[in-house]
Amino acid sequence: MDTDIILEYLIALVPAFIVGFVAFYFFKSHLEENRQERNFRLRKKNKDQTLPLVLQAYERYTLFLERITPGRLLSRVKPIGDNKYDYENLLVKTIEQEFEHNLSQQIYVSNDCWRAIKASKNATINLIRQSSMSEHISSAQKLQEHILTELLEKDPPSETGLSYIRSEVRRMT
């Protein structure tokens, strides 16, 4: 008699367990779907808020690279004397100041883009320093002319960083 009662309870409880399990599974799935939807909306909201900041950082670095392009830099920063080393230092100092002015924007660009920007800056400085070391150049005016002449033969170093920025912004938009 006890086994019959236990068997009846089991027969009654099995459908209840099945219904409970199915309800738990659907409830859990529903909660997970809601969580994913909330995360998606939050990411979209954050992206909508940060995208203008990211694009502004790319714009600032584009402006930086354009300003340190030797042709533009040399037309903007004139020699203050005849000493080529003073002019070299003035040009490098100007580049470094421009770079430091935009330093905080690096948090909005990718690591690869940041490396390309720094490499462009360093290559521009290296171009100026290499030109200044030439024995044929004796004055600031000659240094300016030599750098401009050298640029006629090849692209400026900042072009590498600019092309990287362009490709990265194209991927984003």
Any overview of this molecule?
- The chain is mainly alpha-helical.
- It has one domain (50-172): Four Helix Bundle (Hemerythrin (Met), subunit A), CATH 1.20.120.
- Helices cover 83% and strands 0% of the residues.
- It is built from six helices and no strands.
- It has helices at 2-67, 70-76, 84-101, 111-133, 140-153, 158-172.
- The model has no long low-confidence stretch (mean pLDDT 91).
SSE inventory with pairings:
Layout: H1 2-67, H2 70-76, H3 84-101, H4 111-133, H5 140-153, H6 158-172
Helix pairs in contact: 1-6, 3-4, 3-5, 4-6
Q: Care to give the gist of this entry?
A:
The chain has one domain: Four Helix Bundle (Hemerythrin (Met), subunit A) (Up-down Bundle).
Q: What structural class results from the helix and strand content?
A: mainly alpha
Number of domains: 1
At the third CATH level, what is the topology name?
Four Helix Bundle (Hemerythrin (Met), subunit A)
What is the level 1 CATH name? Mainly Alpha
Strand content is under 5%
C-alpha Rg (nearest Å): 32 Å
**Total count of strands:** 0
Biggest β-sheet strands, sense, barrel = none
Show unreliable segments: none
The number of helical elements comes to 6
The CATH architecture would be Up-down Bundle
What are the main properties of this structure?
173 residues; mainly alpha; Four Helix Bundle (Hemerythrin (Met), subunit A); 0% strand; rod-shaped
